[in-house]
Amino acid sequence: MHIRRDNLAGNEVIDLLREHLHSMTLHSPSASIHALDVEALRQPQISFWTAWHGGELPGCGALKQLDAQHAEIRSMRTASRHRRKGVAAAMLEHLLQKSRQGGYRRLSLETGSAGAFTSAHRLYARFGFTFCEPFADYIEDPCSVCMSRQIQ
After folding, report:
1. In degrees to the nearest 10, what's the CA dihedral of 131, 146, 45, 49?
2. Domains identified in the chain, total number
3. CB 73: neighbour CB atoms within 10 A?
């Protein structure tokens, strides 16, 4: 698998992000969905990467700079047909590496709290993330959880 910086222009990327947004609507109420669309991911403080394997797009992920020492994981998604193949772990390792290179000392994320998100919680925990209070603009929400870890 090859992970590369992406400009969010390809149809495969747009389709994967649509799948991501649609999936969120199946498992969380609209007020609790914080997934970003393509235009929102083009903000200058967001870096976006895609994972490619044999011409297919198995996954994506992004980092949003919150401040000089704190970044947030955004839009981490594995395509449905590529689940359970290590795509998310590879992308998460890549995002951790980029966070270290960027000099961040803390990396955080927000995800859903429903059962559909249990495997994501386990993955993040395996990489050292622990549940935390809401950060940045997030607020307490029973349909949402935040996780964080120190870097370096």
Report:
1. 80
2. 1
3. 22
pLDDT reported for residue 67: 97
Residue type, 111: T
CATH number of the domain bearing residue 135: 3.40.630.30
Phi, psi of 117, rounded to the nearest 5 degrees: -100, 0
Instruction: Please choose, from the candidates 51, 142, 152, 58, the residue with its C-alpha nearest in 3D space to the C-alpha of residue 103.
Output: 152
Q: Which domain holds residue 60?
A: 2-150
Q: Would the pTM of this model clear 0.85, i.e. be above it?
A: yes
Q: Are 16 and 57 in contact (CB under 8 A)?
A: yes
Q: What share of the chain is helix, strand, coil (3-state, %, to 5)?
A: 35, 35, 30
Token digits of residue 103? 């000099």
Write out pLDDT tens, residues 24-75.
777 788 888 888 889 999 999 999 999 999 899 999 999 999 999 999 999 9
Q: Going by C-beta distance under 8 Å and a sequence separation of 6 or more, which residues neighbour residue 3?
A: 49, 50, 51, 52, 90, 91, 94
